[in-house]
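Revision sheet: structure tokens.
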Amino acid sequence: MVSNDPRFPIKTQILTFLFLFSAFSTVHSQDRSATISFEVKNIHAGPLKDSEIKILSTDHKYSISTNDKGIATASINPGQYTIEIIKNGILEYSGKIVITTSQAFTFSLKDKINSIEEVIITAKESKGLTSSSIISQRAMQHLQPSSFTDLLELLPGGRSGDPVMNQMNKISLRETGNPGNDYNTSAMGTTFLVDGAPLNSGANLQYTYDFLDKSNNGLKRRLNLTSGVDMRSISTDQIEKVEILRGIPSVIYGNLTSGIVKITNKSGYTQWKSRFKADGYSKLFAVSKGFEDKKYGLKINTGIDYLNAKSDPRDRLENYKRITANFALAKEKQYSHSSFRWQTHLSYTGSLDGSKTDPDVDLSQLNSYEVNNHLLSLSNVFNYTKNEPSFYRSTEIQATVNQRFDKIKQTKFIQLENATAFPLSRIEGEYDGYYPEARYISDYTVDGKPLDIFVKMINNFQWDFKTIKNEINTGFDWQLSKNWGQGQLFDIYKPIDPKATFRPRPYRDVPAYSTSALFFETISTADIGKHKLTAALGIRGNSMLNLPSDFKMSGKIYADPRANLQWDLPAFNIMNRKAQFTLTLGYGKQSLFPDLNLLYPELVYKDIQQLNYFHSNPNYRRVNYKTNIYNPQNKEIEPAVNEKFEARMDFSLGLHQLSVTVFREKMHNAFRSMNEYAVYQYKKYDTSGLNHDAITSPPDVNTLPYQDMTENFTYSAQRNGSKIDKEGVEFQYSSNRIPAINTRFTLSGAWFRTTYGNSLPVYKRSDVLLNGRPYPYLGLYNGMEPNSVNEILNTNLMMDTYIPKLDLIFSSSFQFSWYSMRKLDPMNGTPSHYVDQNGNILPFNPDTAKGTILERLIIAQNENKYTTNRRPLEANVNLKVTKSFRHKTVIVSMFANRLFSYYAPYSVNGFTINRKGANDPYFGMEINFNL
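Predicted:
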């Protein structure tokens, strides 16, 4: 028998059966079904997207929705059907059709509802499988943003704020609190996509040494090291639509933790558009144009904009400038059995962030600081879609190349406080140092050239079985990031930071960053009576390439399982209005690989001064160092993993819509810098026996007496130590427009609780000196980093009114922060272990340590520090107005944020804090021309 033949093992038989079954089912479906295309237009021949089309018969039921072009396609068995077209919950059309072969139907609908319902100037919550907010071009126009940062106001829980253009703007999704740079993984793990092309870079190494040393320098706030995308650099003038996914996305997307920002640029014909905006902080100019040739299926869009912003209008010495230029081309070709689309996008973004010191304060008038970033991006997207019914449906190939040219330029006047010496050695050993001039000018440059290449392929298959529709998405993606810059450039005899513990390295010597992934996803939709169930199950395998074999991640595949389930309950009528109730559940894991800065950090140079003989005669001076080099590279580092769970309820009654989402996220291995310890030995030379008046040459270290010394110290290394837990509730209610006043009410808000902490023990040492020497022991503490619990409750009530006769939109936004809270959990100041001078780790006993030098390792705690800080109500009223003239040829807008505000007073330790007048109103206006 064949089943017993060793040439036909059981695996081969199963795979053969599955293949033949799939082929038979596909051929069978092709024989019976026909591809039907529906195009839905309004009375002005414009496309009606998101129109629900129901095709019904006694034996079959189909439900599809139109895309942005007003087109929907389906494979339908021949027969007679009743067709219903529903828009915004209202039945717009009902009729009979007969289907025999593949054909196309076109429907032109009259305006049964007032067109003012289509005017949406807020973010709209999606009803898809994952929670997301969709921001239209009209909403952005009414908001009048200067950068992408302003759009976050429209998210549930978002609030308006003044632009902060003198520092990096990182994104924060479902998060509250300001914990610091050790918790940047959430922002780093938010992926920005522009027409499918990623903006994130894995090869950004733009930092200064004072940034690595964690010195308190306000200039370093301009740097976005391991912080994701700087939202200041994203212009909104070329954007058609933004979708911000906060829930569990498809496995098509990876190398992320928090969410996805999907930006869709304008495509197709548009008039010449120009925009001029001015407010108290910035001035903006933009111009764009779209061309379209329908005969040849060709679309060309281009635009340019310029922003000049200041952090303080009174300060001319500090500003931020942004220049953006875009060119997009799309070519579509229709064939008898398939369609092809190619889209290419070329863009340039220049961010110029600079400051100079006040000449009245800086007498040298030499100090300056600039952070200049230039990005050239070229992306291509190829789509092939098969129009006829078949198992294989489409393929999409994306290819993106991003080349950045980044520079940090700093000029600083250095005045040394005493006889300071500099070590110069780049290798380990004992070497003489250098006595610099007491005053000098240091020119410092950081040259970075990150190159990022992204490639992705997505294949779509469809297999329908009776009333169950199965969609399969499978493919891969690959990323390569390499920094070709020269790195830190400065005169080693005139360093900008005399206390730096690093040496310059060329960035081109850092290995390339490379990741790859395979993904597989099934989306099944089943109609069970009047119920509809949709289940999306997927898994993604992520791997980091080009790693040394001794890395823990080398050769490993990290799996991200994700699942979303949606249940559409039967529709019912309430007061002659259609009501719909939908429940959605989601669970998934999202992994983020460390970037080049985390994988290949700078070497740490520990320069111990063994001899510092400073004579009045420069020829007799000598400084000698013992240089030790430590590599802080963590070969045990792994991807940060965020585990998400969310549940959402959507309810609609006519044009009234309510969405409530409950979520919980856990990430306990986010990236952070932590202390590591090392032990070093050196010689302490004694020059007390020298006759300073009689010497004729520098001291000879070979003849000087010395004492052998052993000490330990700590340095920073990257670990998977940060803990970020998020939980909360998001909601949005949107009414219809009340006919009498043409006003829609939208109430949105969120309650967020975010817990920050460190999941690993830390090394700390006492700052006391014993006999002029550092304290000899290190403590290893569990829970000696503050775990903070942060809460906030925000709501935003917007009333927007549209008057068609005047073509006028005005909105009032009542934003309330009902309370915000921060609480620090008590820390344990008693170490579990300690490190002696020889590097031995020993258990710590607080009882035996009493009365000894080890007792200083116990860190006393201030109980008053752990009280809950709670801020009461903060209320703002914002006003925005948009007026069109001459058939939208001229559009004038203005806004006034915090036109009215109230900040409730509160008490801290018995002192009342009155916040009246703490924030002034913020005004601005703009004018748009459409020619």
